Amino acid sequence: MSVESLRLPAPAKLNLMLRVVGRRPDGYHLLQTVFQFIDRCDWIELMPSQDGRISLSKPLAGVPEESDLTVRAAHLLRRTAGDESLGAVITVEKNLPMGGGLGGGSSDAATTLLGLNSLWKLGLSIDTLANLGLQLGADVPVFVRGYAAWGEGVGEDLTPLPDLPEPWYLVLVPPCHVVTGTIFSSTELTRDNKPIKIADFVAGQQENHCLPVVMKMYPQIGEAIKAVAAYARSAKLTGTGSCVFAAFDSEADAENAARSLSGEWSVFAAKGMNRSSVHSALGLI
Q1: Is 13 a catalytic residue?
Q2: Out of 13, 68, 108, 236, which one is annotated catalytic?
Q3: 194 classed as catalytic
Q4: pLDDT in tens, 119-163
Q5: Which residue, 27, 31, 130, 254, has fewest beta-carbon neighbours within 10 Å?
Q6: Alpha helix (H) ranges present in 120-178?
Q7: What is the pTM of this model?
Q8: Which is catalytic among the residues 39, 139, 192, 249?
Q9: Please, what are the domains in the chain?
Q10: How many whole angstroms separate alpha carbon 84 and alpha carbon 103?
């Protein structure tokens, strides 16, 4: 890695549980969730530009650059720094599925904030960057802070969970794209579930309250749950995305299950991580 550019991971996350416990006056849902990272990631390359422009090296056809979360993150960071001469060329290598509940777009934005803070030598604190990230999306702060966490509010009120088990996971990616807004606007979603404590999660209360609505709207996800459950103690949905996952005691067990399912499904095995790989890459641990 040269000093002229940075190539950084943007790791995926899993929601180990998701509870819907209320709704704010502005319509946003109040949640309880647990975030943990896995070692599957997108990659973000950041190169300084001398002309003060912020751009994508490979913009998607028909998608305005200014709507890309990494570009929005870079512009937000530059406005905060108050220096319009700062520029960057951003390259995004996408490996994480869209709409999968793995947080790919949010993680890309967080890695951009962290990476450009380093590349531009701004010296902004993690707290400042996390607050900027919240302006881009509710999941961005957990990626900026870089630790497994209990999340409340809309997911931004974070309590570190450094001692979570770090199992191997099998992750199955069904061939569908779940639209989060559709799930949260469903009249069938129960919004007044009882809040729990961290100790309750540790003791085994690990439901995803969105799962019944998601399975009804997307039957393929119900099929995916059954497929994974045949190889694991339990199969779960991550967030309001499409991806289904299960924990295994060893890499070999996760890989064996992945091989068995790979004939019919898109699957991969990944290691659970309580600290983000981008923090490791930037020496923030």
Answers
A1: yes
A2: 13
A3: no
A4: 999 999 999 999 999 999 999 999 999 999 999 998 789 999 999
A5: 27
A6: 126-136, 140-145
A7: 0.95
A8: 139
A9: 6-162 (3.30.230.10), 168-273 (3.30.70.890)
A10: 29
